[in-house]
Specification:
The complex is a heterodimer of chains A (about 110) and B (about 110).
Chain A (H helix, E strand, L loop, with lengths): L3 E2 L5 E4 L4 E7 L7 E6 L6 E6 L3 E5 L2 E6 L4 E6 L8 E9 L2 E4 L3 E6 L1
Parallel strand pairs in A: 2-11
Antiparallel strand pairs in A: 1-3, 3-8, 4-5, 4-9, 6-7, 7-8, 9-10, 9-11
Chain B lengths: L4 E3 L2 E4 L5 E6 L6 E7 L5 E8 L2 E4 L8 E4 L6 E5 L8 E8 L7 E2 L3 E5 L1
Parallel strand pairs in B: 2-11
Antiparallel strand pairs in B: 1-3, 3-8, 4-5, 4-9, 5-6, 7-8, 9-10, 9-11
Classes of the chains: A mainly beta (about 110), B mainly beta (about 110).
């Protein structure tokens, strides 16, 4: 059973600080990695995807991938109250996209 | 450019009835995934389809649940003889190729009474 693991949180971060979200996955053959944001009662929204080892930056978001350690992370710089949500890590595995259970992030004003 | 469209948004069924959930993927997307989500829980994979083919249905219960993605028209997730435990949010997502970025519809909230 291929798995994606995330700390459920909640993770509390002061406004303006860097939020760091982590994810590990079990399938060494995975090639595609995604971060989604989900507000309560809403559908998941894709915010980052990464396919190669290293960092990928998009605005305030940076995704980091380390395939050797089977580890993906998401950094959110200059955290805003509107960033308060559940962040879902997802991994492409055996044709499927498998999701972790998500980390609840709370930005403290 | 319409995104992924799901309907209905809310569906109430009595125990024993059938629920039919529809998903129209984004234009140009031929890959569809269905997920189920219970309150305060993650997204559980149910089934992955390409046009006219079921690629992986390992997450779908063997009984009462079925899915299709015909050549013409939306993908359908069908739940026969619904039970209270089927109450959940059902999301579909589409992507242009396998294991690529997938975009979600608004979901169908199924309530079984």
């Amino acid at each position: 059973q291929k798995e994606v693991e995330q700390n459920s949180g909640p993770l509390s971060v002061p406004e303006g600080a860097i939020a760091s979200l982590n994810c590990t996955y079990s399938d060494r053959g995975s090639q595609s990695f995604f971060w989604y944001r989900q507000y309560s009662g809403k559908s998941p929204e894709l915010i980052m995807f990464i396919y190669s080892n290293g960092d990928k930056e998009d605005g305030r978001f940076t995704a980091q991938l380390n395939k050797a350690s089977q580890y993906v992370s998401l950094l959110i710089r200059d955290s805003q109250p509107s960033d308060s949500a559940t962040y879902l890590c997802a991994v492409g595995s055996d044709d499927k996209i498998i999701f972790g259970k998500g980390t609840r992030l709370h930005i403290l004003p | 450019n319409a995104g992924v469209m799901q309907n209905p948004r809310h569906l109430v069924r009595r125990r024993g009835q059938e629920a039919r959930l529809r998903c129209s993927p984004m234009k140009g997307h031929s890959h569809v995934y269905w997920y189920r989500q219970l309150p305060e829980e993650g997204l559980k994979f149910m089934v992955y389809l390409q046009k006219e083919n079921i690629i992986d249905e390992s997450g779908m219960p063997k009984e009462r649940f079925s899915a299709e993605f015909p050549k013409e028209g939306p993908s359908i997730l069908r739940i026969q003889q619904v039970v209270r435990g089927d109450s959940a949010a059902y999301f579909c997502a589409s992507s242009p190729i396998r294991e690529a970025e997938a975009f979600f519809g608004q979901g169908t909230r199924l309530t079984v009474v």
